[in-house]
Amino acid sequence: VRLAESGGGLVQAGGSLRLSCAASGTIFSLNVMGWYRQAPGKERELVASITRDGKSNYGDSVKGRFTISRDNAKNTVYLQMNSLKPEDTAVYYCNAEFLLQSGSWGQGTQVTVSS
Fold first, then answer.
1. Rounded CA gap, 21 and 3, in Å?
2. Facing residues of 103 across strands?
3. In 10 A of CB 54, how many CB atoms?
4. Do the strands 17-24 and 90-98 form a parallel or antiparallel pair, or are they unpaired?
5. Which of left, alpha, beta for 67 (phi over 0: left; psi -120 to 50: alpha)?
6. What angle do CA 40, 63, 86 make, to 5 degrees?
7. Residue 24: which residues within 8 A CB-CB, separation 6 or more?
8. What is the pLDDT of residues 72-97, one digit of tens each?
């Protein structure tokens, strides 16, 4: 299974970005999809995740600013990021978990927020 991320870039503090991640290949029982991020010198952390039936979970630092959604027909997950802060700067990775297959990670997309 391949995960293709898009939508990263450079934005000023207070701005918005929307990330997309589409899963392709032989897919069985796609379950939880999510976004993680890793800043230089820090561990990878959960940003947000969403189950197939739409239940979402957010990291404390992004609650109220980021919104995760998914389109099951397209095997795609989105992350709408508003009110971005410089501390949101990181490489954002898409993750997919399956009931009948091993999980997958995307290659990552850089998000840079300037002050």
1. 6
2. none
3. 10
4. unpaired
5. beta
6. 35
7. 1, 2, 4, 75
8. 999 999 999 999 999 999 999 999 99
